[in-house]
Amino acid sequence: MMANGYTSRPALMALFGMLWLAYPFTPAWADTYQAEFIPFAEITTRHKLEDVADLNRHETTPAVNFFYSANYGQWRLLGEFFVSDHEQELERLSVGWVTEQGARIWAGRYHTGIGHWNRRYHHGAYLQTSIDRPALFDFEEFGGVLPSHASGVTIEGELWSEERIISYVIDAGLGPTLGERHLEPFDLLDPDHGTHKPSIGLQLSLQSPNSVVDETGLFIAHTVITTEQGPLEEIQQTALGIYAVRAIDAYTLSSSLVFVHDREEDTSGSTDSESFWFAYLQAERSLHANWTVYGRAEGTQDAKDNLFIQQIPAFIYSRGLLGVRYQLGQHQSVKFELAKQDQYGEHFYQTSLQWSAAIP
Amino acid sequence: MIRRLVLLFTALLCAASLHGAIADDSRTLVLVRGANGGDIKLTTTEVRRLFLGLPITKNGHTLSAAINHTDPLLYQVFLQKVVFMSSHVYERHLLTNVVRLGGQRPQSYTDPRELLNTLRERSDTVTFMWNDEINPDPAIVIIKDLWHGTIQ
């Protein structure tokens, strides 16, 4: 992660590298080399209806996520570079190989298989119905407590039959460290920053060939998180979750239930074990070709007493939200949300307005 | 009696003319590919997934979809009868899948000659066309009928 104060030169070099790679070099390459370069732009304005310590009452954040993808025969290259007014981060950079059976083997920094959101929407705000992800699946810098990024090898693929598709994701890489107030994933542009230990995971899901929405899945992820901050020295985290997404006429329902177990070692060398639950239910309804209304309820059980979670104050313990999404033309959307959330030890209301777009 | 027969005959003639007019309006949307790619069979579900940018492999070849944007009516029928989505929802699915899987979104063609050249040169490319607009061309073969009906 490149927070304020870090040099942005490597990050900008990575961005220019992606832009350069977006175009084939010679006509001979052009036949076999194909590329996509899609900037995902967003401007999000948040307003708290009351004062909250640690948070600005009004906040407007412009950001662009530069997505790049290339094919060369069976080789693949994927990159996501996120730039906002307070961070520049190489979110994904992976080189992949597609097997004869269609499985993809990726090496580099990737999004982990932790449920429906992380590997479906990545950093494309425009692609999601809601402005924010459920708290447990949020990115590390926004208070997520599971590793949403890791660096190593990830294998994904599908097993087809007439009745069903079984998808799998196998992750093996280096996980995050616990920084001053949030998790910090392995940074490909600053590999010496922090001590990173293994993060492994498996996700399996079942889909119907007749639906591109319906999905039922489960995942397990185990991560060793080191830290030089606060009372903890190492956390061995195991997350076990199930999730489901269903489209029923104009409605789309998605939900997940996750059990997280932490084995924590403190600076004195003693160990302790703590667990908590997280669940959410989101319902969406298409009202018209361009309008979608949605609501989500999410919450935790036993998380407030968890010493590891206490080190990440931006984590949202519970939230209820109502929102509306308006599709603006082919590639833009405007979303408005009213949420009540439990964060930073306070319950407060927040309104959020977001414009987002995929620039084709 | 003769008057009734004339009336009946006239009514039948009108009905036949009307039927002919309706028959003339009915069209068939077909899935096509280059002829040098060998014989492949695709189910309706596979066609839908292919045009959503999901990988479909047949006989060891990964197929790629080409979106025929040469005729707005043809594209609307494709959206309604093949992928069952509105235009912007379809575009959003294509974006989601390319962000998720890498690779490339299906390429769109607005020039029919360019589309035909692609079909001739890239045997793994498939697209959709009106059956009655396919000129006799030995380089292009019909894989399957996607939809048949009358356009209102």
How is this fold's topology laid out?
The complex is a heterodimer of chains A (360) and B (152).
Chain A: H1 9-21, H2 27-32, E1 33-48, E2 58-72, E3 75-84, E4 88-98, E5 104-111, E6 149-160, E7 165-174, E8 177-178, E9 183-184, E10 198-207, E11 215-227, E12 232-248, E13 251-266, E14 271-286, E15 291-301, H3 307-310, E16 318-328, E17 332-343, E18 346-358
Parallel strand pairs in A: 8-11
Antiparallel strand pairs in A: 1-2, 1-18, 2-3, 3-4, 4-5, 5-6, 6-7, 7-10, 8-9, 10-11, 11-12, 12-13, 13-14, 14-15, 15-16, 16-17, 17-18
Chain B: H1 2-25, E1 26-34, H2 44-51, E2 57-58, E3 61-62, E4 64-68, H3 72-83, H4 87-101, E5 107-109, H5 112-121, E6 125-130, E7 140-150
Parallel strand pairs in B: 4-5, 4-6
Antiparallel strand pairs in B: 1-6, 1-7, 2-3
Description:
The complex is a heterodimer of chains A (360) and B (152). Chain A has 360 residues and is mostly beta strands. Chain A has one domain (2-358): Porin (Beta Barrel). In chain A, 6% of the residues lie in helices and 57% in strands. The radius of gyration of chain A is 20 Å and the shape is globular. Mean pLDDT of chain A is 90; it is low at 1-7. Chain B has helices at residues 2-25, 44-51, 72-83, 87-101, 112-121; strands at 26-34, 57-58, 61-62, 64-68, 107-109, 125-130, 140-150. Chain B is globular, with a radius of gyration of 20 Å. At the A-B interface, strand 1, strand 2 and strand 3 of A face helix 2 and helix 4 of B.
